[in-house]
Amino acid sequence: MSEPFDPADVTWSRVSPRLAAARITTTCIVFALPLAVLVVIAVLTGEPWVWASAAAVALLVLWLVLLTRRQVRAIGYAERSDDLLVRKGLMFRQLVVVPYGRMQYVDVTAGPLARKFGIASVQLHTASPATTATIDGLPPHEAARLRERLASRGEARLAGL
Prior knowledge:
This protein is of the alpha+beta class. It starts with 12 loop residues before the first strand and ends with a helix. The protein has a 4-stranded antiparallel β-sheet with strand order 1-2-3-4. It has a 3-stranded antiparallel β-sheet with strand order 5-6-7. The protein has 4 helices and 7 strands. Helices cover 50% and strands 24% of the residues. Helix 1 (18-45) runs antiparallel to helix 2.
């Protein structure tokens, strides 16, 4: 018997590990200024509680870095004959099933940081706003291949209706 988040007949494709590096870079950029301010204040005042605050922020960043790596490893997608499966999450797991016949269009996006790390995102849009699936962290050539394949499968399923 298969688990609901891991069907037995599915071979999962993983996203690029560069997604973890991009997310870790974002985390470090966000926390760099608060950490630097706390350290400067701690040096100037010598107050132990300011040093403790700086240490707490540094530990939070370390925890987020370790968590991000595990979260990225948990992301996967699988193409089946009639639908696309997208799974993500560690504690709160999610499995999205998008039938090809329900897809309206497929977006491929890459912001400046994503382009710097050589990754892109594929977003599937359906008629229902609640059923959009996003696959972050794909190499650009894989994102383009997936977009073309999903679009052609979606058109073929719509033609059969």
